[in-house]
User: Fold this.
Amino acid sequence: MSAETHVVGTSIRRVDGVEKVTGAARFVGDLVVPEMLYGRVLRSPVPHARIARIDVTAAERMPGVVAVLVGRDLEGTDPFYGHAIKDRPIVALDRVRFAGEPVAAVAATDEAAAAEAVWAITVDYEELPAVPTLETALADGAVRLHEGPLRPGLFHGLGELRREEGNICYHYRSSRGEVERAIAGADLVVEGEYTFPAVYQYAMEPHTVIAAWGVDGLTVWASCQHPYLVRAELAELFGLPQVSVRVIVPYLGGGFGSKSYTKMEPLTAALSRKAGRPVRIANRVDEAMVTTRRHNMRCWMRTAATSDGAVVARQCKIWLDTGAYADNGPRVAATAGDAAPGPYRWQAAEVDAWAVYTNTPPAGSYRAFGATHLIWIGEAQIDALARRAGLDPVEFRHRNLLRPGEEVRPGGKPLDADLVGDVTKVAAAVGWGKPKPPLVGRGVSVGLLAAGANPVSTAAIRLQADGTAVLLVSTTEMGQGARTVFTQIAAEELALRPERIRVMGADTQFTPYDRSTGASRSTTLAGKAVLRAAADVRGQLLDIAAGVWGLPRSALAIRDGAVWHETESLSFPTLIARHFGMPGGEMIGRGEVRPERGTGSYAEGPVFWEVCVGGAEVALDPETGRIHLRRLASVADVGKAINPQLVEAQDEGACLQGVGNALFEEMLFEDGVLVNGSLLEYRVPTTADMPDEYRSIIVENADGPGPYGAKGVGEGALAGVVGAIVTALADLGVEMYDLPLSPERVWRRLRELEAQGTVLLRD
Amino acid sequence: MDERSEAPARRRIALVVNGNPVEAEIEPRELLLDFLRHRLGLMGAKRSCDVQVCGSCTVLLDGEPVSACCTLAYEARDRQVLTIEGLADAGRLHVLQEAFIEHAAVQCGFCTSGMILTSLELLREVPAPVPEQVRSHLKGNLCRCTGYRRIIDAVVDAGRRLAAEGASS
Assistant:
């Protein structure tokens, strides 16, 4: 790899741009498969019940209805799935555990007929005592949602599962030093209890799946982020060899974690199997909201420092509400546990994180999971300590932040980012140190997110006879720009113009294995596999040219779609034709990434530490409690920006999602039943909620393990700005313990502080 | 139940979609979005919120943006419908489409057709809008990927270019 790059590092246009601005881009819901039926799902109206009786006879007789699927259709199989814990039935068997759980599904010749048939199914529920909150689920003698030992899923990957304790499905613990002793010896201690609400990812395209059974097995078109993990689970559920399950993923209308792991695919496949025809199920928003969500959380945290401004210790207990089924809850708990200490030099730190079953819709992945839950809390306490030590919050962080190469957690990858530089930059971007108008506060927030998931990716390149190339990789394009970035990497390595390269969607029958699309891993890991596949093809071309000229490879160079020796060149088509002895043929290159020992290794977790650095300047209206965002800033510490424009775009999107998480997004449950299940009642940020000014600052220190020193981006900004908005409000003397910072909640807090006689609203 | 399943009377409508005359027999309850997607195979308008909040199903009805998820196909009778598929002229992208690509205002693409069509109407009313006007005009179109800034930049830029073209022609 030469130090100078030509395509990498430039903001080439998105390779999917034209398709997307003309309406030509196809999402799963745009596909029509011959003989396809439309599926609709009957969902439980109650959070916890035994199903006494289901009568589908009326529904089955309705015009257009081809099949109705209920739990008894799954008899004789093991119908439970779940990548972390195998606890979720394809469709409710004898019991429902959350309001919204699929109880039956109808396949009909059109959507309206299916919807009407769903209304004709009658179900008798015998309601059971429910545990719809963390408090009720953790109470002594609470009813248990899952009996017996928990079974690990295919991708559990988090050590041994213990036998179930009450409704706890996973416990993560990390400990170093003697926390109690360290805290006892400290001068300043802050302590508090905090909550984070359930949040809906709202990918604009709700989950959509088409399943079709044929003589050669099951084909599924799915809006899924992790096609290979879905394939493995489907194969296991239906007792098929993996080669007989084909998962095809076209474009995704956003994901943000809501489409990671298996969601609607098993239900759609089971319904299609019963109907004997292809079936499409497209969730509506209210259904998507009860399919997956972000964990709500309760947390207790204590942080200690010396009076001269050195942090000493932190202790933290975290309870994450994972809903009725574990989904990705165990991994969210682990990531929350990793984020909780924050990137500081502790003498001692102790974290416990529990994922807890409740009678609510399952909670799984959502952008910057764990980190978003925890960083604002840790940073609020850092700010409180800085104030009590009489130090500027940025200065306090400078003194205590880890430096590159220092240990983040025992046994893990040391810090691979310049946090001091990053926080200095965001502080400057929000006007740190400059005079503030009245009722304006500024805050910064610094944290780390364990990114990259598992370092396993493969890729292939097929260089065609005319010197154009097809890139095969199973990363899902859901808006992040993966196809564009991979094109750039392959173009760079093969000295081809980007227009001569095509990247298609994932298709498990053709595109090679990739662990997943999420955790900011695609550019870093799949990108590295692409780079290696391209290098493999390049090596083959050089070998052919070396043979033709009788020269060593070292005397040759590649540029402009040809191999060169001084002023002589052989184009790729010429070389391929020479190799095969005729026009036609292709060179195939392969690349892989797996845990490796040595420099730039992926062996020690995480793959990299993604920074979550944000800055905010807010104005508070004390009469209404409304927070106005004057300035926001975030840092994309990417090592190397393969496409700077796409890096900023990712960060800007994450930032605005952070605004929603910080200020108003919240799923509301009453006794376990979602009561704001539409976008009229669940609000996400609109253009009206944009900050007056926003800056995404790209930092390139080539310190990542990915291609050209790159590392991932796109999640940290969310967690960073949430923390910064919280600390900016605290700068005005308003310390908050619960999100979102809705006007009502802030207003109530202001009245509370007033009643306490606390001096308010420092200018 | 009986009332629901009784087959309603079908009606015949004629309309113009992307410049092409279309005649069809529809059910009275048929939504414009389903009509466009299922009958005509025009998949550019997307279904998301179903409650006229997100804008992803926006099409222009006689030049006015409407949410096709909450508009009956019957309401479009004898009128002109423009979908994203009808915007490029003989394969040549519209200035707005170009600007959306150039400014990276497109990410997952699910909101894009609605964003572009809603912006098109703005540019017809306000030839060269300032960012604040675009921001206000796009309040009814959600995007979860971009953070909106690039979309606003793209529309402002397209407006500027169109205004310059208009001035020079």
Remarks:
- The radius of gyration of chain A is 27 Å.
- Chain A touches chain B through 62 residues (CB under 8 Å).
- Chain A is about 25% helix and 25% strand.
- Residues 522-549 of chain A form the longest helix (28 residues).
